[in-house]
TrEMBL record:
Gene: malF
Keyword tRNA processing: no
Residue ranges crossing the lipid bilayer per the database entry: 25-45, 51-68, 80-102, 286-314, 326-346, 377-398, 432-453, 489-511
Species per Swiss-Prot/TrEMBL record: Halomonas koreensis
Membrane topology annotation: Multi-pass membrane protein
Name of the protein in question: Maltose/maltodextrin transport system permease protein
Function: Part of the ABC transporter complex MalEFGK involved in maltose/maltodextrin import. Probably responsible for the translocation of the substrate across the membrane.
Tagged with keyword Oxidoreductase: no
Amino acid sequence: MFATNASRGLPRHRSRYPAERYTRWAMRGLVGGLVVALLWLVVAFHLRGQWMFALLFLVLAAGLAVTFTRRRLMSHRYVFPALAGMGVFVIFPLLYTVGISFSNYSSTNLLGEERVRAQFLARTYQAEGQAFDFRPFRRGETVRLFLEAEDGRALISAPLATAEAGEPLALDPAAAPPAGEPLGMREVIARRDRLQDLVLTTPDGVELRMAGLRSFAPLVPRYRENPDGSLTDLRDGHSLIPDRDTGFFVTEAGERLTPGWPVAVGSDNYARVLFDEDVRGPFLQIFVWTFAFAGLTVVFTLAVGFVLAVLLQWDQLRGKGLYRTLLILPYAVPAFISILIFKGMFNQHYGEINLILEGLFGIRPEWFTDPWLARTMLLIVNTWLGYPYMLLLCMGLIQSIPRDLFEASAVDGGGPLTNMAKITLPLILRPLTPLLIAAFAFNFNNFVLITLLTGGSPDIIGASTPAGTTDLLVSYTYRIAFQDAGQNFGLAAAIATLIFLLVAALSWLNLRLSKVEV
């Protein structure tokens, strides 16, 4: 019998192999370092007010520490990286998007309330008082500013090199410009950042700041914070009241001032999609087109792929290998390259397609300006891109059909069309159904095709959001979030949530049809 660690007097948890022990120590050190790094991120995001990211990294740190310190969870250590990746890159973005959909998060409501308040308090204005034109003079390595007012008063600064960061630079009365070389506008522009940081103090204690490339003037804070959280405009004495229902500072007249801060708005974004006519009209039009585009793409690609697959199974056809290679070749070309080539071919003025149509029939279709022609163009291009996939699927399924069925059909007098309608299509349609649903879901979110070929154009007239007649829901969401002037992330997140629910329903249907236990 082999002696155990206990019989040799060794602790049971120690290994006989030093390399294994050192590896264990290294892994513990690595895990400890990762936990410390994650906790540092928790503190950093918490201090910046990003509590959702802080909670994410706190959960990751806790899961990492528990999984790699509990011996009973040893088997889970191998799947923890995959679960962590799914949580960070799938679950968290989904929850974050859903959370944004219940807020007014946008380009005008982007910062936190404290940062918005700090921006208002940092604003200045030129107080009533005389501005000074300035000219820099250089003598050797010394640069001074000579300031001159309209009433003839002249001041000269101490050397700029003596000014420390954040401290004012004294000005003294001067009768004439100092000796030295006057610097031109190019030198002023080159020193603009340095000049903007300067605070000049006149002999009577007035602070001057740079008000332009040619002048210094008394600049004072525009707003003052009050104990109740409101701000007072020092120019006219009016108050700005923080409206925490809308996320803006509001004037006494009810005017909202930007920037604002994100606040919870409940289901307002979903209500806009369902009940606001300016949003609902384009949304429903794009919604119907999205389903039509995905459905027609599946039908057309399946029809072309199925017919070609049946023809390639014809016994009398010679050169099947060559035809098969040529027909599948579009599948090997990156989609974005094919899309850009088709975009040039469909060009309304110089494209090859319009040149051919004009030469044969005397017509020049407006592929990119007419809504129905633009949609037709999209279906044509997407059918070209998608039929090789259906061709491969149909070829594989057709080859799995027993030849005895075709021989029996031939005995009964069945021809090629009968075999295709009565034998081939029914036998391949059932196993093909889950793949067709997957293809439908893919084309439902076919962002690349829309963006590269039409960009969603032509636009829907009268829409309050950037919406085009060829937009899909996913491209419509992108345009609201990143191309609209207001960049309404909350509304875009609400539409993205609805898209997720639709795709999730399609995935569930796909699993049901595939007879997979959920």
